[in-house]
Amino acid sequence: MEPGIDRSPATTWRVGLAGGLLMAVTFGMVRYVYGLTLPGIRAELVLSDLVLGLIAGGTFAGFLLALLLSTRLSATIGPRAPTTLGGLCATVGCAVVALAPAPSVLATGALVAGGAAGWVWAPYSEIATRVVPEADRPRVLAVVTTGAAVGLIVVGPLALAAATWASWRWTWAAITVPAAAATVLNIRWVPRLAPAPGMPGPRAALGPRMTAPLGFAAVLFAGATAYFTYATDSAERGGLGAVAGPVVFALVGTTGLAGLWTGTFVRRIRPAPVAAVSLLVLGAALAMLGFGSHSLPVVLASAVAFGAANTIGSAALPIWTAQLVPDRPAGAFSAALVVGSVSAIGAPAVIGGLVAHVGLALPLVATAILCATSAVVLAAVRRL
């Protein structure tokens, strides 16, 4: 860490809280609210499953583009700049979607909003590396990542209220308020760090030791995207009504708070086993959603499993990459996010194209098998 930077406990606390709040908005609320409001969007704008899937993929394309640009912006202005831009994208993008008169405008707003988390997540790995003492970094990174779970806890009841008394548009409009507030807090609480032009990008961190976390990121993002995009739709197709989606998302957020203990899990059994277990549980959650969407207890059990698995797996990823590439933690984490984002772009588009021909259950179960198989392979590779 560079000299002249305030590394007091108060700064550590503010950085963790500011990052957690911004992740709560950009990742927990903005990035996945599309799947939560998908049935209402389909009904009002009369869109096919293929078009809805393409728009969902577009939100992750925005995430990938922002992720690639965030490294360059950090190197020229400083890592706080992309996090601030991410908050602004969340605010503006949600406002555009809320007011969208046509599918093209909605897709544009969703792409801008979807990119918000890409501007925020990786730069916070750099901020933690340069500001937070080494002993506190796993805890701070876990708090930042678990902020997404807090956002899901909020967005579920918010969407339920909007579906009960208004339209899906009010859900997107309401998110602009916490998005703007989190942006302001990020500016006030996160220290302004100097640019680091010499900091290598994602490509410089690639190597044989990154094979396992890159593969894990690809499968984790594909499974999580499939779940978040189609959980509400699957529950409603199974006859559970409009209340199912918001309840599922709120439950996912609540159990996702388990991510706060990821640092402890990693210290006890190391990151790779934590990643393997999270993929195995994620596969079980997708299988339950595919086979049991007609049963409320099964859907709720699926949400419980998914919430814990997704957040713990997501929190383990930056800790894992930082341990494997300690001299380039931000670049290594960015590389994993790039691979995961490419996977996330294709997953909803492929599933959306299959739904019209084979229904929704089969693609979800196929994704579950992919997650479970990858967990076994990861565990076997680590033993070897």
From TrEMBL:
<dbReference type="Pfam" id="PF07690">
    <property type="entry name" value="MFS_1"/>
</dbReference>
<feature type="transmembrane region" description="Helical">
    <location>
        <begin position="332"/>
        <end position="354"/>
    </location>
</feature>
<dbReference type="InterPro" id="IPR020846">
    <property type="entry name" value="MFS_dom"/>
</dbReference>
<dbReference type="InterPro" id="IPR011701">
    <property type="entry name" value="MFS"/>
</dbReference>
<dbReference type="InterPro" id="IPR036259">
    <property type="entry name" value="MFS_trans_sf"/>
</dbReference>
<keyword id="KW-1133">Transmembrane helix</keyword>
<feature type="transmembrane region" description="Helical">
    <location>
        <begin position="140"/>
        <end position="164"/>
    </location>
</feature>
<feature type="transmembrane region" description="Helical">
    <location>
        <begin position="274"/>
        <end position="292"/>
    </location>
</feature>
<feature type="transmembrane region" description="Helical">
    <location>
        <begin position="46"/>
        <end position="69"/>
    </location>
</feature>
<feature type="transmembrane region" description="Helical">
    <location>
        <begin position="12"/>
        <end position="34"/>
    </location>
</feature>
<feature type="domain" description="Major facilitator superfamily (MFS) profile">
    <location>
        <begin position="12"/>
        <end position="384"/>
    </location>
</feature>
<keyword id="KW-0472">Membrane</keyword>
<feature type="transmembrane region" description="Helical">
    <location>
        <begin position="170"/>
        <end position="190"/>
    </location>
</feature>
<feature type="transmembrane region" description="Helical">
    <location>
        <begin position="360"/>
        <end position="381"/>
    </location>
</feature>
<feature type="transmembrane region" description="Helical">
    <location>
        <begin position="242"/>
        <end position="262"/>
    </location>
</feature>
<feature type="transmembrane region" description="Helical">
    <location>
        <begin position="298"/>
        <end position="320"/>
    </location>
</feature>
<dbReference type="InterPro" id="IPR050189">
    <property type="entry name" value="MFS_Efflux_Transporters"/>
</dbReference>
<feature type="transmembrane region" description="Helical">
    <location>
        <begin position="106"/>
        <end position="128"/>
    </location>
</feature>
<feature type="transmembrane region" description="Helical">
    <location>
        <begin position="81"/>
        <end position="100"/>
    </location>
</feature>
<keyword id="KW-0812">Transmembrane</keyword>
<feature type="transmembrane region" description="Helical">
    <location>
        <begin position="211"/>
        <end position="230"/>
    </location>
</feature>
<protein>
    <submittedName>
        <fullName>MFS family arabinose efflux permease</fullName>
    </submittedName>
</protein>
<keyword id="KW-1003">Cell membrane</keyword>
